[in-house]
Specification:
The structure is a single chain. This protein is mainly alpha-helical. The chain has 9 helices and no strands. Helix 1 packs across helix 3 and helix 1 runs antiparallel to helix 9. The longest helix is centred in the N-terminal third of the chain and has 34 residues. It is globular.
């Protein structure tokens, strides 16, 4: 994989990320609110949460906290796809073939998950703190205010709270994502008898990739949300969340928000991979590369 190819993966990944956030933010807001409540104190289910959010705060409340991921989405997704490209390069260095299996694509994707953790952790904390604000006086006026107050209350460690659990979520999840994407594409290629995929096939492959990502990521994501939104000093670490969550809500507590996650994962990641593939095709149309 050439340097030019790696650069293109970086740019195309950023393009896919913008498509992902724009299509998936409302589902993400509902997911975070469902995960943050204790028991069923506020919302009975995802539909109830959506209805109450719109009724009490207006439709655009579903897009609360979008500024942080949208501003950060280009470098975050770009770095993820950059790591994925590097992961492929490392595996091809001493290989007699220039093709990788879906499992090898998964290993490459895990490296991408590691790359993006340092960038995504503070953005995730800002987003979650904004999303749990409902009615009444708001503690934070926006992303920068969250950043300032978090730093004032506990320094850089407070801003970066949740980095380890974010890595636990994102490294394996990213591996599952790219493995599922390439596996689905390979099945379509066999069916088509060609390497060219139809528009809808890219969308389907991206949708399955999103579901594969969250099949691993849901439980660590619940723990991460609880840890990142808890008052300072409540938990010693993200691991401290696990026994309390299990004691109060059982196994099902680790799968809170699964409904909106599943609903969001398909269209958001279908749009992400379509944006990624279209960006690669556009760049290859302008300046062709053998890899594409």
């Amino acid at each position: 994989v050439s340097t030019q190819s790696t650069g293109r993966s970086f740019i195309a990944g950023g393009t896919g990320g913008v498509c992902c956030v724009a299509s998936g933010q409302p589902f993400d807001t509902i997911k975070v609110r469902m995960q943050n409540q204790v028991g069923g104190a506020l919302y009975k289910n995802s539909i109830d949460c959506t209805v109450k959010t719109i009724r009490n705060e207006g439709f655009f409340a579903l897009y609360k906290g979008m500024a942080a991921p949208l501003v950060g989405v280009v470098p975050i997704f770009a770095v993820n796809f950059l790591g994925y490209s590097h992961g492929k390069s490392l595996q091809l260095m001493n290989s007699n073939t220039q093709t990788l299996s879906p499992l090898q694509h998964g290993f490459a994707g895990s490296l991408g998950g590691l790359y993006m953790t340092a960038l995504i952790a503070p953005g995730e904390r800002i987003k979650c703190l904004l999303q749990i604000q409902t009615t009444g006086p708001a503690k934070y006026s926006g992303p920068m205010d969250v950043l300032k107050q978090s730093y004032r209350e506990g320094g850089i460690r407070n801003v970066m709270r949740g980095t380890v659990i974010t890595a636990v979520r994102d490294m394996p999840a990213s591996g599952c994502y790219f493995a599922a994407y390439e596996l689905t594409k390979s099945r379509f290629r066999e069916s088509n008898g060609s390497d060219d995929l139809a528009f809808w096939q890219v969308l389907v492959a991206g949708g399955f990739a999103g579901w594969a990502n969250w099949a691993w990521g849901i439980a660590p994501d619940v723990v991460k949300t609880r840890y990142q939104t808890a008052p300072e000093g409540k938990y010693k670490s993200a691991l401290s969340v696990v026994p309390e969550l299990y004691k109060t809500e059982g196994v099902k507590g680790f799968f809170k928000g699964l409904g909106p996650i599943a609903l969001r994962a398909w269209p958001a990641n279908a749009c992400c991979m379509l944006g990624y593939e279209m960006a690669l095709k556009a760049m290859n149309w302008v300046a062709p590369l053998p890899e594409y």
